[in-house]
Inverse folding.
C-alpha cells in the first residue's frame, strides 16, 4: 500500500501546476484506494486465482456386455486416463492434492478401493488421496466441481476430477427392501420410477413427439460419425491397451481401443420408426432414441492459474460456475432446463452468451424438451453427437462432456468463448457447469458483465 501511495505522490507532483502562495485553490492529494490497492493489482490477483483446466482426457466409450471393454477391469479404465493427464502435462504426480472420482453403480466401499488401486497403477505415490462422489448421472461433473471448489478454497492447488463406470461389471437395480413409508409420499415414490418411465412422462406431459425423438437420435449418430471420421475425438481420447476374451475358448487377445464403438452412421428415421417402445406399450421411448449403456472413464486436471503459468502449461479452459438443482422426480429429465439458467446466471452471463452446449442425451425426449424450453440454437448443442450415439457410462459422462466441450472450444478459437455442460439426474435433479476457453481471457478481462 505504501508503495502505491508513493507512486501517486510522484505522479501528482508532476501533475500539480505551480500556484501563487495566495491562491485558495485546492491542491491534488494522495489517498488510499478503498479496494485495498490499485485496480490492476486486484485484477491480477483474481486472475491468478482462477481455477483452470490444463488437461481433459477420456477413454473411448464402448457398449456394455458386448463392446471392446467387456473384459477390462474398471480400475484399468480409470488408471489409463489418470496416467494420460499426468503424461500430457509432465506433472509430478506427487503434486496432486486430491483425486475425486464420480461413479454411480456398485458398492461404494468397493469402488473407493478400486480407485485407490487405479491411482497406484497410474503411477501416483501413496501420499495422494482418492475419494468417490455420487450424484447419479452428473457424478463426473460433480467431481470436477468439487475439485474446483477445493482449489478455490485453498485446500490444495492441483487436483483431478474424474469419472468412471463399467456398466458391464457393476450390478444395477435396488438392493434390499424399500421403506414402506414411501407409499405416503408421492415424490418419494417417483424417485423409484425406472428412468425410461420418466422419459415417457416428459414426452407425454410436454408433448414431445416420437418423430422429434427419433430425429434427435439420427442427428446424434450423424454428428458423432462425422466427428470420428474427421479425427476430432483424437485429442480427447486416450488409447487403452487391454484385452478381449473369446467366450468359447477363453483365449485372450490383446487390443488397443481408441474409437467409440456405439456410433451407427447408417441410422435413419425409417429404421428407428420400426423399433418398438421399451417402457410403455403405447409409448415413444425406444432403444434407438435412448442413451447407450456403456463402459468408459474420463479425467480432468485442474489447478490455480498462477500455478499453471509458473509451470508454463497451456490452459485448455477456465472453470467458472456450477449449479445443481432439484426438479420433480417423475420428470427428472427436465433437469438441464432448470440447471443451465442457474449456472449461467451465476457466471454473470445470459444464455445468448454461451457458444457451445454439451447436454447429456439420457433420452431424446428430455433432450428435445430442454433444447426447446430454453430456446437454444440446435447448431450450438452437442455438435459432435451425444450419449445416444457415443454412450452414457453413468459416472464418467460428466468428465467425458467436459473433455469434449473444451477440445471443441479450443478448435473453434476466438469465436467460441463460453461453454456449458449439463445433464439430468435420476431421482429428480439437474446439474450444469460453465467453462471459458483457455485463451479467451487475460488479467485485464472480467467474465462478469458490467451493467
Amino acid at each position: 500500500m505504501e508503495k502505491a501511495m508513493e507512486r501517486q505522490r510522484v505522479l501528482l507532483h508532476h501533475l500539480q501546476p505551480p500556484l501563487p502562495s495566495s491562491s485558495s485553490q485546492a491542491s491534488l492529494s494522495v489517498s488510499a484506494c478503498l479496494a485495498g490497492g490499485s485496480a490492476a493489482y486486484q485484477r491480477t490477483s483474481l486472475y491468478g486465482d482462477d481455477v483452470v483446466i490444463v488437461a481433459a482426457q477420456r477413454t473411448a466409450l464402448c457398449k456394455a456386455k458386448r463392446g471392446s471393454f467387456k473384459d477390462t477391469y474398471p480400475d484399468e479404465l480409470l488408471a489409463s486416463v489418470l496416467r494420460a493427464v499426468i503424461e500430457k502435462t509432465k506433472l509430478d504426480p506427487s503434486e496432486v492434492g486430491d483425486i475425486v472420482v464420480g461413479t454411480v453403480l456398485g458398492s461404494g466401499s468397493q469402488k473407493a478401493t478400486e480407485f485407490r488401486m487405479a491411482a497406484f497403477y497410474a503411477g501416483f505415490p501413496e501420499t495422494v488421496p482418492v475419494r468417490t462422489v455420487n450424484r447419479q448421472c452428473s457424478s463426473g461433473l460433480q467431481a470436477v466441481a468439487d475439485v474446483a471448489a477445493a482449489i478455490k478454497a485453498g485446500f490444495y492447488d492441483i487436483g483431478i476430477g474424474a469419472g468412471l463406470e463399467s456398466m458391464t461389471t457393476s450390478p444395477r437395480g435396488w438392493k434390499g427392501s424399500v421403506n414402506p413409508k414411501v407409499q405416503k409420499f408421492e415424490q418419494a415414490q417417483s424417485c423409484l420410477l425406472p428412468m425410461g418411465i420418466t422419459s415417457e412422462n416428459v414426452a407425454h406431459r410436454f408433448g414431445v413427439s416420437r418423430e422429434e425423438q427419433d430425429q434427435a437420435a439420427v442427428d446424434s449418430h450423424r454428428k458423432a460419425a462425422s466427428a470420428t471420421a474427421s479425427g476430432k475425438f483424437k485429442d480427447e481420447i486416450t488409447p487403452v491397451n487391454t484385452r478381449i476374451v473369446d467366450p468359447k475358448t477363453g483365449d485372450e487377445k490383446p487390443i488397443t481401443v481408441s474409437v467409440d464403438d456405439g456410433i451407427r452412421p447408417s441410422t435413419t428415421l425409417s429404421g428407428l420408426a420400426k423399433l418398438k417402445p421399451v417402457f410403455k406399450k403405447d409409448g415413444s421411448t425406444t432403444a434407438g432414441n435412448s442413451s447407450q449403456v456403456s463402459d468408459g472413464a474420463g479425467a480432468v486436471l485442474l489447478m490455480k492459474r498462477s500455478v499453471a503459468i509458473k509451470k508454463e502449461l497451456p490452459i485448455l479452459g477456465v472453470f467458472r460456475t456450477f449449479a445443481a438443482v432439484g426438479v420433480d422426480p417423475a420428470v427428472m429429465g427436465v433437469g438441464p432446463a432448470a440447471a443451465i439458467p442457474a449456472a449461467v446466471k451465476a457466471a454473470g452471463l445470459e444464455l445468448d452468451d454461451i457458444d457451445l452446449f454439451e447436454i447429456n442425451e439420457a433420452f431424446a425426449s428430455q433432450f428435445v424438451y430442454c433444447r426447446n424450453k430454453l430456446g437454444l440454437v440446435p447448431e450450438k448443442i452437442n455438435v459432435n453427437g451425444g450419449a445416444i450415439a457415443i454412450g452414457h457410462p453413468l459416472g464418467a459422462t460428466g468428465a467425458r462432456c467436459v473433455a469434449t466441450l473444451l477440445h471443441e472450444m479450443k478448435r473453434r478459437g476466438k469465436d467460441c468463448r463460453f461453454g456449458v455442460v449439463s445433464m439430468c439426474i435420476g431421482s429428480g435433479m439437474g446439474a450444469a457447469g460453465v467453462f471459458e476457453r483457455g485463451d479467451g481471457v487475460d488479467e485485464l478481462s472480467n467474465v462478469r458483465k458490467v451493467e
